[in-house]
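Cont'd.
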Amino acid sequence: MPDRKQFCAELGIDESRAQEILLREQREVSSTLTMPWYGRLVVGIGAWVTAIAVISLSAAIIMLIEPDHPTIAVIILGVVDLAAGFMILRIGGKSVFMDQLGVAIAAAGVAMITFGIIAEWSRVWPAFLVGLIVTAAVVVMTPNRTLQFLTALLTAVLFVITLTDSNVPYFLAIAALAGPVGMVLILRPFETDLRPVSIVLLLVFPLFSWFYISTVSFGLYEQIPESGAGLAKSLNIALFLLLAAIHWLQITATDTRTRLIMFAVVAVIVGLLLPPGGAAALTILMLAFVLGSRPLALLGTLLQASYIWRFYYDMEVTLLIKSQVLMAVGAILVITWWLMTRRAAEGVRQ
Amino acid sequence: MRPAEKYQAETLHVAEVDILRRYGLIRADQYLDAIYLCRDAQYWTRWALRALLALGVAHLLAGIIFFFAYNWDSLSPVAKFAILQSGIFFTVIVALIVKIDRAAGQALLIAASVLAGTLLAVTGQVYQTGADAYELFTLWALLIAPWVLGSRSAAHWFIWLIIAGLAFNQYAYQALIPVGTISVAEFSCLLTFVTAVILALRELTVRAGATWLKARWTRLILVFAGLAIVFMPAIRYPLDFMPLIEFALGSEAQVIAVLTFIVSVAALTFVYVRLLPDFGAIAIGTGFFAIFLMTVGARVLAELIGFDWNVASKILPSLGLLVLWCAALTAGTLKTLAIVRRYIRPEDADA
C-alpha cells in the first residue's frame, strides 16, 4: 500500500487537505476509519431492534385512536414518525444516542407508511413508489448510512413483491437490472455517499432468486422464458466480464493478464452452468476482488455456499442433472486452480 | 492543525479512498485508480486462488452427494461401498502425493473426511444397524481425527469441531435430556464451557507457534458460537412474561444460563481487551450483551408497569420507555466500541 505522499502525488491531490479530512473523520465515533464494518453491523442490529419497539409503540397508538379503521391512521402516524426521525437526526448533531433514536423512529415511520398503503389499497406497487421517494429523501436529507440501507432494503423488497404479485413477465431479468446500477454506483461513486443503496441493489437479484429458486431453472437446460432467468444469467456474466476487463486495464504483467483471461473463460463456462443466482454470487465475489473489499467477499462467499444448499430444493431439474452440473463446475474450478497455481510457480522460478 | 493531531497513518487504505471521494478530492474517474493504489494485490491474489479451490471442492463434494441421493435406490450395496471407499482411498493417496501441508492436500483430506461420513451413513442404512445419530457422528469424528491432526488445516479443524459438536449435541438430546440427567439450559452452559476450553486451546496453540491456526476467523467463529449457544436460554429467562416465548425459545427458563452468559461476556472482555486485544471479539460480545440488556429492560418494564395492550396508561409508557432504552443501549454500544477501538493498540487492531 502506498504512503500518503505518494498516493496524493499520483492522483494530483492536495496532501494537507487530505490529511485534514482524514483526521476529522478519524474523530467521528462511527467513522469507517475507527469502526470496522462488523462493528457497525452490531450497531445496526441494535437500531433494528429499536425500530421494532417504535413500530410496536405506533401500533399501540393506532389501536387506541382508531381500532376499527387503522390503515389511514397507520399511514399518518408513519409520516409523523418519519418527519420526527429526520428532525432528530438534524438537531441531534454528533450525539450518538440521538442518531440511533432518529434512525429507529424514521425507519419505523417508513415501514408504517408502506404497510399502511398496502393494507388500504391491497396493492404493493404504490407502496414501492412511496418507498422510492422516501429513499431519495433520506439520501438528500441525511448522511445516515443505516437509515439509507434500511429504507433502500424495504423499497427493494417491495419492488420484488410488485414484480411477482403483478405477474410481470421476465421478472427475474427486471430484478437483475438492479445489479448493474448498483455496480456503477460502486465503481464510479458520487460525492454523496450511496454505498448502502448500491449494496442493496447488488443484493436484489441474488436474494430474489434464492427465495424463488423453485420457479427458476437453468437457462441452459429447461427454459422458462417468462421468468427471464436466461437474460438475468447473461447479464450477470456480462457484469463479471466487465469487472475482469477493469482488472485487466489495471494490471500490466503479461503473465497475470494471461491467467486473468484463462480465469475469465472458465468463469463464463461456470456462470452458464450454474443457476442465475449462482452467477450473481460469482459476480459479487469478483467485485470484492477488484475493490479489495472483505465485507463483499464474505457476502459473495455466503451467497455462493447457500446456493449449493438451496439448489437441492429446485424441483425443475432432477438430482442427476444437478449432480452432474455441480461435479462439472467443481472439476473445472479445481483444474483451473491447479493450472493457475502452476503458472504462478513457474513465473516465480523464472 | 496542531502537530500532535497530525494524521497518524502514513499508508492509505481502501476505506480512506471512499472518504476522500465523498469530500470531492478524488474524482469519479479517478476512483478505481485510487482503489488499485491502495489495494493489497498480493493478499487478494492469494484470496482469489484459495476461493477458487474452496468453491471447486465444495461443488465437487456437493455433486457427489447429490449423485448418491439420486442413485440411491438403484445402486447395489456393493456398488455403494466400492464407490465411497475408492473415493476415500483416492483422495487420501493423492493428498499424500501433493503433500498434506499444502492447500491442495488439505482440501483432499477434507474431501476424504466428508466421504468417510457418507460411508458411515451408507453402512447404517444398508445394514440397518439401528445406531443412534450421536453414535454415527462420534464414530465419524474419531475416524477422521488422525487426518485432522496431520493436515494442520484450520478449515479441517473447523469441520471436525462441527462433527464433534453435533455428536455431543445429539447425545445430549437423545440420551441425557429425555431422562432428566441434564436440562436444555444446563447443556447449553456446558457446551459454552467446552467452546471456551477449545478457544483457550486455540490461543495457547497459536502462542506455541502454530501459524496455520493463526487466522483471526478461527478465534471469531469460536467466540460467536460460544456466546450464541448460551444466548438463547439466557434471554429466555427475562422474556418469560411474553406469550409464545415457550414456543419460540423452548420451555425452560433457568438463571444458570443468565449467569453463564454474563460470566462469558465478562471473561471475553477481559481477555480480548487486556490480554489478547481483538476488536472483532469485543464487537461480538458487546452486540450479544446489548440485546440481552434490551430483554432485561423489557422484563423490568413488564414488572413495573406492564404490557397490557388494552390499557393505554400501561402500554404507551411501557413501549415508550422501551424505545428510549433500546436507543440508549444502541448508542451505548457504539460508544463502547469506539472507546475499545481507540484503547486497543494499533498493531493489534484488525486492518
